[in-house]
Design goal:
Elements lengths: L4 H11 L12 E4 L9 E4 L4 H10 L3 E4 L18 H9 L3 E4 L2 H5 L4 H8 L4 E9 L2 E14 H12 L3 E4 L5 E11 L4 H6 L4 E5 L3 H10 L2 E5 L1 H6 L1 H15 L6 E3 L10
Parallel strand pairs: 2-3, 2-11, 3-4, 8-9, 9-10
Antiparallel strand pairs: 1-4, 5-6, 6-8, 7-10
Amino acid sequence: MSLKVTDFYTFLKELAPLELAEKGDNNGLQIGSFESEVTGVLLSVNPSYSSLVEAKREGLNLVITHHPLFYKPCSQIIFEEYPGKIIVYAIKNNLNLLSWHTPLDKLTFGVSEALAQELSFKTEDFILKEGEDYGYGKVVIFENYVKLSALAKKIKKQLKTWVMLIGEPESKIKKLGICGGSGGFLKEHLKKQGINTLLTSDVKYHSAFEAREEGFNFLLIDHGVAESFVLKVLKDKMERFLQKIRVSLKIKIFEEASPYIMI
């Protein structure tokens, strides 16, 4: 039995329904054919040139990414530039690119839960609940108070990433909000719940300044690292799906280098 790209598209739709997607989010097939027979799958956070090169090298003709290649229409495609370089490489090498973004953010076992699990944190409910089984972020309640600086060091060591701290390092916290990706918008929702600390990514200067003045803490990590752990969940569920229908295909997670260089 062989599987086509459309079979994986259907699998993703059932796992993380498109109805959960944010308005304007571009999920689904970015490049390729639904009728293409799949030889193997590469999972990646980003649709990067290096991820496609890895897929070609491994003989995996379906690349499934969290972030979509196209957020807005292309006005030009230059072969030597982004995203033209990726488009040309994918087409020349018969690679299919499929992306699944905000629906994976909102699931009970999605991006934020996967990040919490990687840190061995037991979560409670969503920070911002949008439905019975979906929403944004997760809340963690510690058994004992934890010093903010100690928590930052734990995160840095366990995730092997840089950590930026906004707030008083010596402050002690009992509750923590976690949101993989850019979750700064959840600050006000957390404050209403009496929670003053959020682990997330990509908080701008003025938001950071405002948070410091309010006594709110941010623990910021690399965006790609924060969202990468959901790929393990996706790989596991995909392998279970293949086992159930008795299909053998290689599934590999691509580890993307961070664009940030800390000196």
